[in-house]
């Protein structure tokens, strides 16, 4: 019996990838929480923005891990889309910072907060759709 037959909602590799992505988000969120003050100070971001981002990134990671048992290709597509946009936004905010735009770090944290909650909601919606 193939892995797909035993686990019709998604392959083992898909589940492992989604758990890994969710776990990485939890590590990032923990780092934001632990290093909140130095991050906020060094990047010129209000500490509450770093805290809010940490909470929303953690929530997204938790949703990914919980849903991983019923993961499907659409979840992989959502993660690929999220990660692709993350790379583009990171490059843009890095360019902004190199041009001396002080709000670049704020934009980066706010993007992560908003994108994380959108990803979590889309994961939940994708789970309930046939």
Structural overview:
The protein is an all-alpha fold. The chain has helices at residues 3-6, 12-34, 36-43, 47-67, 73-98, 104-128. The longest helix has 26 residues, at 73-98. The two termini are 24 Å apart. 29% of the residues are buried.
What is the β-strand count?
0
The span between the termini is 24 Å
Write the element-wise H/E pattern from the N-terminal end onward. Answer: HHHHHH
Q: What is the radius of gyration computed over CA atoms, rounded to a whole number of angstroms? A: 16 Å
Helix content: over 70%
Our estimate of the beta-strand percent is under 5%
Please, how many helices? 6
Task: Tell me, briefly, the overall form.
Answer: elongated
Decide which structural class fits the backbone. Answer: mainly alpha
What is the averaged pLDDT score?
Answer: 88
Largest sheet: none
Poorly predicted regions are: 1-8
Keywords:
single chain; 130 residues; mainly alpha; 6 helices; disordered N terminus
How are the SSEs placed, and which strands pair?
Blueprint: H1 3-6, H2 12-34, H3 36-43, H4 47-67, H5 73-98, H6 104-128
Summarize the structure.
By secondary structure, this protein is mostly helical. The protein has helices spanning 3-6, 12-34, 36-43, 47-67, 73-98, 104-128.
């Amino acid at each position: 019996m193939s892995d797909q037959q035993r686990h019709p909602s998604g392959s083992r590799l898909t589940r492992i990838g989604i758990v890994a992505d969710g776990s990485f988000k939890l590590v990032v969120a923990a780092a934001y929480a632990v290093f909140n003050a130095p991050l906020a100070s060094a990047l010129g971001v209000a500490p509450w923005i770093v805290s809010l981002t940490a909470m929303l990134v953690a929530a997204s990671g938790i949703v990914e891990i919980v849903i991983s048992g019923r993961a499907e290709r659409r979840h992989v597509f959502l993660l690929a889309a999220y990660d692709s946009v993350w790379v583009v936004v990171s490059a843009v905010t890095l360019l902004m910072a190199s041009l001396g735009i002080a709000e670049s770090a704020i934009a980066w944290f706010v993007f992560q907060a908003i994108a994380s909650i959108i990803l979590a909601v889309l994961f939940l919606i994708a789970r309930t759709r046939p």
